[in-house]
Amino acid sequence: MSVDFETWNAGGTDIIARAVVAAPSVHDTQPWNLYLPGQSAELEERTEFAEPGRDPLRPDRTISCGTAVANLELAVRVLGYRTRTALFPDPERSALVARVDAVEAAAPSNWDLRLYAAISHRRSHRESFAGIPVPAETIADVISAAAEVPGIHVMLLASDEASALADTLTCAAEAKRRHQHYQREMFSWTSHWQPDGNAEVVTTWNTGLDERGAAGAALVTTGVPDPSALSESIARDTVLLFVPASSEPEDLVRVGMAAQRAWLAAVDARLSASVLTHPLRIGDSASRLAELLDLPAPPQLIMRIGF
Fold this sequence. Notes:
The chain is of the alpha+beta class. The chain has two domains: 2-119, NADH Oxidase (3-Layer(aba) Sandwich), CATH 3.40.109; 123-307, 3-Layer(aba) Sandwich (NADH Oxidase), CATH 3.40.109.10. It contains eight helices and eleven strands. It has helices at residues 10-21, 58-78, 110-119, 136-147, 162-177, 227-235, 249-268, 285-293; strands at residues 2-3, 32-36, 40-45, 81-87, 96-105, 152-156, 202-205, 218-220, 238-244, 272-276, 301-306. The strands form three sheets. The chain has a five-stranded mixed sheet with strand order 1-2-3-5-4, with helices on one face. A four-stranded antiparallel sheet has the order 6-9-11-10, covered by helices on one side. A two-stranded antiparallel sheet has the order 7-8. β1 (2-3), α1 (10-21) and β2 (32-36) form a beta-alpha-beta unit. The chain starts with a strand and ends with a strand. Mean pLDDT is 86; it is low at 180-186 and 197-221.
């Protein structure tokens, strides 16, 4: 991290750095670098994570950078500044994802303070939720927090639409079973929706890098969940789909920003949450789900919230 100490004192630097480090990221890789020049804060993508040729984790790393940008904005506001954010502001620096300028002194809003306070309490909840319905007004608040990021449509999955998501997840799992790579998380997508839990059995394992990427090699020997049972379980949950205008990097960053704001709003409401993205990267899964639900574009992130 590079810091201009004429602008950012040690306390301010610590507040910003802690907020960025606490942002969720794919496989907890934190694929970004933070710089604090002048009256600005900059977030760059770490290019050493890029894989040659087709890079299946690139969309998730870009979304991860968006979650860090959301936290970065909140931190600068909490320090007493109005912010101005530009995405991919410098064509000469392709890795520069965002620049957040501290425009002028301004007291943070109560909402900014609450979302910032939620950063340290955010955790990914991969287990089942309690069977307590999330109040409609709370869901509206969570969606409203995400809607503060322009260009992202957040859709609440209706109970009669659960079968479409179950179908998509099942097809993705079936497709993934035909490969011995990238199977580490195959059943973590659906284990919280299985009444009997996750009976994953891994017969081979390699946590190192291989020619297919960082997930390692694994062979999972359990079956794919029953689509009908999966649909019934999904219907009992509160599920949000994040749909950007496109899959271009700028829109993927906005997905991350919107998802993080929604997650923090959920935490502020004493809810837990988790996100799913990997199933949407397999083949035409995202396009298939968009067609089933008549969405304007393929969704890029799935979020569960609940008590």
